[in-house]
Amino acid sequence: SGFSLLLWIGAFLCFTAFLIRKITTHEIDTDNLILGCVLVVVVVVTGCFMYFQEHKSQKIMESFANMVPPKATVIRGGETVTIMSKDLVVGDLVELKFGDRIPADIRIIQSQGFKVDNSALTGESEPQFRSIVCETGDRTVMGRIAGLTARLQPNKTPIARELEHFMKIISVWACFLGVVFGSAALAMNYSWIEASLFLIGIIVANVPEGLLATVTVCLSVTAKRMAAKNCLVKNLEAVETLGSTSIICSDKTGTLTQNKMTVCHFWCDGKIIDADSTTQQKEAEEYNKSEGMCATLCNRAEFIHGQEDKPIQSRQVRGDASEEAILKFVELTHIHGDPTEFRHKNPKLLEMPFSSVTKYQISIHGMEDGRCLLVMKGAPERILARCSQMYTENGTFCAEPPNFPRKDLRFVGFMSLIDPPRPQVPDAVERCRSAGIRVVMVTGDHPITAEAIAKQVGIITCDEVIEAFNINIIETLPPNIKNKAIVIHGSALRDATNQELDNILFNFKEIVFARTSPTQKLQIVEGCQRLGEIVAVTGDGVNDAPALKKADIGIAMGISGSEVSQQSADMILLDDNFASIITGVEEGRRIFDNLKKSIAYTLASNVPEILPFLAFVLLNIPLPLGVMAILCIDLLTDMLPAISLAYEKAESDIMMRPPRNPKKDKLVTRKLYFLAYGHIGLIEALGGFFVYFAIMAENGFWPDKLFGLREKWDSQSVNDLMDSYGQEWSYIHRKELEYTCYTAFMISVVVTQWADLIVCKTRINSIFKQVYTLAVSKELHGMTNLIF
Amino acid sequence: MRLPSNTVFISAKILLFYLLFYAVLIGFFSAMLAVFYQTLDMKKPKWQLSKSLIGDNPGLGFRPMPPESNVESTLIWYKSSDKGNVHYWKNELTEFVKSYDKENNPHEKNVEECTNYQPPSEGKVCNVKMTKNIWHPCLAESSFGFEDEKGGPCIFLKLNKIYNWNPEYYNSTSLPQDPNAMSEYLRKDIVDAESRGEDGYMSPLIAVHFEAPRRGILINIECKAWARNIIHDRVDRRGSVHFELMVD
């Protein structure tokens, strides 16, 4: 990164200074040699630290990927073998059974009721065997998406941009000071060697040695804190990105919703009854048994054995997602007791499985009382077309079908299914809104479904929704669109120009994109970025990978997320919960504030480090603060307090203010410089100089004597330097006095830095208010603990 | 008339703030420093001897010293036949010796004549008598030996002044081994070096006359001051001085 580059240059300059001294005067300049080495060590150590931090996240990720090692059963050379998916070659015969992952692009050559979960490709679950491998590796559809992802150049993270900006300022400032004082030294009749040594010295003194380490540690502290809240950060710099996010492009399935089909309503006997997915189905229990019978029998889904002790909603089911929903519903209502048992009692005699052509499913069961029951389930229009009667509670007339009838059936009822939103999502969306973050839904799902979910979770709150299903609507948008929401169909988006897309993204506060393709997701992200927004993208499918990579921060799902999406993301939500993003935003905003404090704190001590050297050059006084003392301040005494500021509590409700404007709210602003350098730094330097002059005077050198003394003071040949009292100092004793001054100066800087720490603790609030608020909140905590 | 724009007004306010802020800061700094200097004695240092960093082990200085443009050097290098070359060294020494004249001492009244090996009376300092019989040829009249075609120069050695430091003289029994051996080569001349910080005090002084240094050879010279309370260390140059001499 740019910052370590600055340190490398600093180290290089130190070695140059060392070499100049070695060649011209044959003296070994240990100070510069040590400083150079320390700078190199600092860069290397922080580099390693960063590597290990990211390696650790990488390992957590790998453990996710390795939970289910992708394997495939293939017929190769006439033998059935199980091999790793990556070892497949074109021409292998793949045998797939229920629940297997499709290992490559395959051509189906023989199948029976085969259905594929395409959700990894499309982002939606939509439930077709023996097949032949026709493409492998990068040539598969998956591989092509991965290729598109790999070719994308991710943007620099905002914090990296901020640090680069800061580095530029520091370097320009350092070089400016160096050149000004270097030429001043030349004008003061110093030799060019001395002048260039001063120049190097001033540049190096301006480098905040400890800052890179401080920033790295601060970020990893937050990364750790976020990991504890189920946000695994892969890239350290992405820690802050979430805090400056202004738009979240969220996927629907699995992120906003639970990715579990659930029965939400059913209709029977002329009444619509709510089915609650969480509590016991009280109302459903009172409901007529016929629909329950049908739901239990005309259902191929089964619970996987050995999970009977788990709550019903989290039990694993073998079967189609909607049948799973119905099975769980039946299990919850328990109208006919245990569904498995009920099925045993009423065995299936014949079955016609669901197919996308017929869109219904029929099964015939032998009932306990010896009669046969035909039950049918399917798409509403298909079922209704085959019904001539309707079941009512009062209808006692019961006509058993004499044989396999496919019409004139009796309609029992509807069951409507939904992939319900996660319970925490509406609240999280609301909090995003109050934090000034726009949530845009980008889904591959049907616009109607998308709109319904968007309304449920609060992405759409407007009453008026423009449904842009084709380009004409986009081209003829009404003039007053401020308080309207828009749902855009992928095909409309395909025909829209970038300008029209920007126009929509800029004007509408509530936007839902439906039926979008991977490239369109990318297009949306790029559109937001053109508007200067910091974009976060959440996604779990392979199709999301390009958008995840292009986004300022890509957020993948830890549980349902595909491997490719996790690899291209910067952050992983370990619990797949959109609400975790909010904690991430909060932590990100907090670390930005706290980094500001850390930098203000660290920069302040730069002034008392540079001024002694300037005074040494311009006023010709013995050096008040040595290089080693500077290193001690920067790398020892300043580091821990600066890191401690990363733990600082937020000053106000950071979730109630809009996200920072990356163009205006910089990490290091002029205000911060003036405060750190112009106020605090200067006071610290004066404190140091006071101690310096005091110690010199107490030992005999009054200030008037000190000015212009530098050359004689530093000359080993002068063994009898006279002080203000006429005492004569030998070289060794003078140097002892000088080192004492270094120590005193250093201690005074350290002590003033304590005060600086308290100054930097808050940026907006008064320290008393902050301490008071904390104390009060602790007090309240204590009180509530007492009460409960 | 147009009113100054808002930014100008704000900048002016900021400028005024910094002017006041720095004025107050510097004022406070100077005031504090002034208060601090009130606690110091003008006549004697606050910390003395071992309490001070100067310690109680004086070092030695030599004269003449090389010019300030060559401040890192301790080499006295000249050509005795070259008047211009010798001029600098002669001049340096003349100025140095002058400061020892009773007439040039700003506290002339304090200077009294001492008998050999006797300390001066309370509050007085001894006069350094640069008489011909003792100091020849280390006098300005004979160019401090610098112009001598065969002989060598006179180098003056002075003990560093340390406030309130008193030498503990050796007596005949306590003389260490080394000086005894040395005494065969050097004229033994115990120097009075009491320094209580009296006004007009001059550092004790001896002159070393190099009688016939080889021409064109660099001679390394180390001189030590001997007293019971002076310890020596060559590396740190404690209680001693080092210089080089080269006569062409």
TrEMBL record, chain A:
Uppermost EC category: translocase
Bilayer-spanning residue ranges: 32-52, 170-192, 198-219, 599-619, 625-647, 672-695
PROSITE patterns assigned: ATPASE_E1_E2
Gene3D superfamilies: Calcium-transporting ATPase, cytoplasmic domain N (3.40.1110.10), Calcium-transporting ATPase, transmembrane domain (1.20.1110.10)
Gene Ontology biological-process annotations: intracellular potassium ion homeostasis; intracellular sodium ion homeostasis; potassium ion import across plasma membrane; proton transmembrane transport; sodium ion export across plasma membrane
Keywords per UniProt: ATP-binding, Cell membrane, Ion transport, Membrane, Nucleotide-binding, Potassium, Potassium transport, Sodium, Sodium transport, Sodium/potassium transport, Translocase, Transmembrane, Transmembrane helix, Transport
Record's keyword annotation contains Protease: no
EC numbers: 7.2.2.13
GO molecular function: ATP binding; ATP hydrolysis activity; P-type sodium:potassium-exchanging transporter activity
A GO term from the CC aspect: plasma membrane
InterPro entries, alphabetized: ATPase_P-typ_cation-transptr_C, ATPase_P-typ_cyto_dom_N, ATPase_P-typ_P_site, ATPase_P-typ_TM_dom_sf, ATPase_P-typ_transduc_dom_A_sf, ATPase_P-type_domA, Cation_transp_ATPase_P-type, HAD-like_sf
Boundaries of every P-type ATPase A domain copy: 67-143
Topology relative to the membrane: Multi-pass membrane protein
Subcellular locations according to the entry: Cell membrane
DNA damage recorded as keyword: no
Domain Cation-transporting P-type ATPase C-terminal: 622-770
Protein name: Na(+)/K(+)-exchanging ATPase
Species whose genome carries this gene: Aromia moschata
TrEMBL record, chain B:
GO biological process, one term: potassium ion import across plasma membrane
GO MF annotation: an example: ATPase activator activity
Keywords: Membrane, Signal-anchor, Transmembrane, Transmembrane helix
Transmembrane helix as UniProt keyword: yes
GO cellular component, one term: sodium:potassium-exchanging ATPase complex
Residue ranges crossing the lipid bilayer per the database entry: 15-37
InterPro entries to which the protein is assigned, alphabetical: Na/K_ATPase_sub_beta, Na/K_ATPase_sub_beta_sf
UniProt membrane topology term: Single-pass type II membrane protein
Compartment(s): Membrane
Family: Belongs to the X(+)/potassium ATPases subunit beta family.
Protein name, entry field: Sodium/potassium-transporting ATPase subunit beta-2
Protein species of origin: Aromia moschata
